[in-house]
Design brief:
Elements (H helix, E strand, L loop, with lengths): L5 H4 L18 H14 L8 H18 L1 E6 L4 H6 L3 E3 L1 H10 L4 E5 L2 H10 L4 E3 L15 H10 L5 E4 L4 H5 L3 E3 L4 H12 L3 E5 L2 H8 L5 E4 L12 H10 L4 E4 L5 H5 L3 E3 L1 H11 L3 E5 L2 H10 L4 E3 L13 H10 L8 H15 L9 E2 L14
Parallel strand pairs: 1-2, 1-3, 3-4, 5-6, 5-7, 7-8, 9-10, 9-11, 11-12
Antiparallel strand pairs: 10-13
Helix pairs in contact: 2-3, 3-15, 5-6, 6-16
The chain binds 1,3-dihydroxyacetonephosphate and iron/sulfur cluster.
């Protein structure tokens, strides 16, 4: 097949020997099959980049059919992944809900490891693939299952609410999970169930502090942080306000409380995207991971985005090349010890069983900060 693309040979996709990613070519057939996708991302992917992306996108979209796979893509995926190969896209809560209900036999997680593990826990009979096993998370690596067991022993009367950005083992020793979309709802629901005024919320200290400002429930937390969101400062927000007084400033609740207090709106990545869609501001500044503005801008071409952002090195491990290789070779299968998975599923299910909101709720950025001590173990 030297010098000739596989589409020119008339080979059926199911019979094709899928080559190295670098051997895929951008020919007329690939162009014809992908032009409609380029039209979608043309404002965020340059014409110089597209000939490198298109053959991979085309191959991935054929392999998905061949393997019976669906791709769940988080909002922080780069725009060519998010818009051109993602089947279901959204925030962590939406991806978990979809993973629990997916009809396909194979789920490829275009996101980080804890998301793939969550998909496996919720759909244990499915094959769950992640393009790079090393795609971690600073929050997930801040706490272990043994830490949670120690917290439980020290505070037996308080329920433990665990952010989904954690390992299966951490979830297994917790009482209920939450995401940034439902954290306030989960804290209030579990406090009521346990008939307590105090809840332990781990491992993101900033999410815990931001939630505490929204509710009357007292919160104890852990000293974990998201390495992307912890870097933003109130001074950054002030500088942006001075430079762009007409822009709406939108933050993620993994940011420190002083950053959230300086913003106009705060919520999960899903809530951020909804807010821009609903309000259609002239100018928006999303205080979060870099790909988010690109992906939201595709849906909102009339909005001008100022992009002060931090890259998540873990999310950025996922590329079209390693998605292609994962589906080609059916590799990097995520497995979870069945005993751990069963317990972790109970924590995830307790979250998923709570009433679903029509739209991800926002945080009130005007609330005063409250003290949130760390647990001592
Ligand atoms: P959400 O998409 O749930 O807002 O989470 C953001 C995040 O940092 C995921 O790693
Ligand atoms: Fe973890 Fe933050 Fe990266 Fe999300 S953005 S995966 S919370 S480090």
């Amino acid at each position: 097949m030297d010098g000739m693309s596989w589409t020119e040979t008339g080979t059926d996709a199911s019979e094709r020997i899928w080559p190295e990613a670098s051997a895929l070519v951008y020919d007329d057939a690939v162009k014809a099959r992908t032009d409609h996708l380029y039209a979608r991302v043309k404002d965020v992917v340059t014409p110089m980049e597209w000939p490198a992306f298109a053959p991979l996108i085309d191959a991935i979209n054929q392999l998905k059919v061949l393997r019976g796979a669906t791709i769940l893509a988080h909002n922080y995926m780069t725009p060519e992944i998010f818009n051109c190969v993602g089947d279901i896209t959204g925030d962590s809560l939406k991806l978990a809900q979809v993973a629990a209900e997916a009809e396909e036999d194979v789920i490829l997680q275009a996101g980080v490891h804890f998301m793939a593990e969550t998909a496996k826990i919720l759909s244990p009979n499915k094959t769950v693939l992640i393009p790079d096993m090393e795609a971690g998370c600073s929050l997930a690596s801040s706490i272990t299952g043994a830490d949670v067991q120690a917290i439980k022993s020290a505070y037996p009367d308080y329920p433990i609410v665990t952010y989904v950005n954690t390992s299966a083992e951490v979830k297994a020793y917790s009482d209920i999970c939450c995401t940034s979309s439902n954290a306030v709802q989960v804290v209030e629901a579990v406090a009521k169930q346990w008939n307590t005024d105090t809840v332990i919320m781990i491992p993101d200290q900033y999410l815990a502090k931001n939630v505490a400002a929204q509710t009357g429930i007292k919160i104890l937390t852990w000293q974990g942080e998201c390495e992307v969101h912890e870097q933003f400062t109130p001074e950054d927000i002030q500088d942006l306000r001075d430079a762009h007084p007409d822009a709406v400033i939108i933050t993620h609740p993994e940011c420190p409380p002083e950053v959230m207090a300086a913003a106009d709106f705060a919520g999960s990545t899903g809530a951020m995207a909804n807010y821009v869609k609903e309000k259609s501001p002239n100018k928006a500044i999303l205080i979060t991971e870099c790909s988010m503005s690109d992906n939201v801008s595709v849906e909102n071409p009339g909005v001008q985005f100022i992009k002060p952002c931090n890259l998540c090195p873990h999310m950025k491990r996922i590329s079209l090349t390693n998605i292609y290789e994962a589906l080609r070779d059916m590799k990097h299968e995520v497995e979870v010890d069945p005993l751990i998975a069963e317990k972790a599923k109970a924590s995830l299910q307790a979250m998923l069983d709570l009433p679903k909101a029509d739209n991800p709720p926002s945080f009130d950025t005007g609330k005063a900060a409250v003290a949130v001590p760390y647990v001592t173990i």
